[in-house]
Design goal:
- The chain is an alpha/beta fold.
- The N and C termini lie far apart (38 Å).
- The chain contains eleven helices and 13 strands.
- The strands form three sheets. The chain has an eight-stranded parallel beta barrel with strand order 3-4-7-8-9-10-12-13, surrounded by four helices. Strands 5-6-11 form a three-stranded antiparallel β-sheet, with no helix packed on it. Strands 1-2 form a two-stranded antiparallel sheet.
- The chain has one domain: Alpha-Beta Barrel (TIM Barrel), CATH 3.20.20.70.
- It is globular, with a radius of gyration of 19 Å.
- The longest helix is centred in the middle third of the chain and has 17 residues.
């Protein structure tokens, strides 16, 4: 059905198309059984101590305000990450702010954390219990005077509703956010987060989402800090505000974060580096260019315990999850691997 509808969808402004998708998903009419595949039990794995049906997740950015996660679980995702959620509701950056680069199978966005805010979203999740493993991605408001405090507010308000919380320090669309990659700034943030966790007795696992544009020498410093501050996961990686030279589409110079196929090898290589540094002791979620079973398998064998997609679903539709699962089962059988968890890091 998506292949029939795609020309119409792609004739619309990307954000209009996205809003239409959210409205459609609120109907929640698709049967979950439609997205199942044979021998799917081979894909069952664990993430942050929770058993999930498969390692394919939806990245933050699609369901920003946690409106349709239960409809999305029906597509066959093993887990879903909503957000980025900020303490207060905000509109984000001026439109237009999403651009399709069809020739490159990519997107550029400069949305700027548009969402309904932590109070509304916490009530929404409280009233609509997640039917799967739900992560919540958090970040600071654009006009905040204290970014660290914004993370603390969101963590305190949302952790009770989340399977895990992702600390987003890597969006290129919020000024100063990537300053948290600095060793001193990151240590200060993680120390503050641990203080809140201890004071409020928060048991929710914490992950940190990093930029693909970091320098090699920063990797070991980030791993040292993450390891010493009880962070359970690293999401590798967010969108890139670089890497435009080899793109074909005329929109390649739009300001914002680039996602999709151009990010695939960059994020996979970064996953390998982080896996070697963490020695498998910290969960890695691989993001960037996942749109097939093969690309998901590459990230898993590079060291990712699970993967996330977003741009791939924009181009290939909701059936992409079923296709990835089917392809992964086929690859595992061919490689004589009984369960997907056995493939983690074998090519790192």
């Amino acid at each position: 059905m998506f292949s029939i509808l795609r020309p119409y969808i792609f004739s619309l402004d990307p954000e209009v198309a996205h809003d239409l998708a959210i409205k459609s998903l609120k109907a929640n009419i698709l049967p979950k059984s439609f997205f199942k595949v044979d021998d799917e039990e081979m894909l069952e794995t664990t993430l942050f101590g929770n058993i999930i049906s498969n390692p394919i997740g939806l990245a933050a950015g699609f369901d920003k305000s946690a409106e349709v996660y239960n409809s999305l679980f029906k597509f066959g995702f093993g887990f879903i990450e909503v957000g980025t959620v900020t303490p207060k509701q905000q509109l984000g950056n001026p439109k237009p702010r999403i651009f399709r680069l069809e020739k490159d199978q990519a997107l550029i966005n400069r949305l700027g954390f548009n969402n309904h805010g932590s109070e509304i979203i916490s009530k929404r999740i409280s009233n609509n219990h997640p039917e799967g493993f739900l992560g919540i991605n958090i970040g600071p408001n654009k006009e905040t005077e204290n970014k660290e405090k914004d993370y603390y507010i969101c963590l305190s308000r949302l952790s009770m509703f989340a399977g895990y919380i992702t600390i987003n320090i890597s969006s290129p669309n919020t000024e100063g956010l990537r300053d948290f990659h600095d060793q001193g700034e990151l240590k200060k943030l993680l120390t503050g987060l641990n203080k809140i966790i201890n004071e409020k007795k928060i048991e929710c696992p914490i992950a940190i989402k990093i930029s693909p544009d970091i320098k090699d020498e920063e990797i070991s410093k980030i791993v040292d800090l993450v390891s010493s501050h009880n962070i359970k996961g690293i999401v590798v990686s967010n969108t890139t505000d670089s890497n435009r030279d080899n793109l074909s589409d005329i929109k390649k110079h739009e300001v914002g974060g680039l996602s999709g196929q151009p990010l695939k090898d960059i994020s996979t290589n970064l996953i390998k580096r982080f896996y070697k540094e963490t020695k498998g002791k910290i969960k890695i979620i691989g993001v960037g260019g996942v749109d097939s079973g093969r690309s998901a398998y590459e990230k898993i064998t590079a060291g990712a315990d699970a993967v996330q997609l977003y741009t791939g679903m924009v181009y290939k539709g909701p059936g992409i999850v079923k296709e990835i699962k089917k392809d992964l089962v086929s690859i595992l059988k061919k490689e004589n691997i009984k369960n997907i968890s056995e493939a983690v890091g074998i090519n790192a």
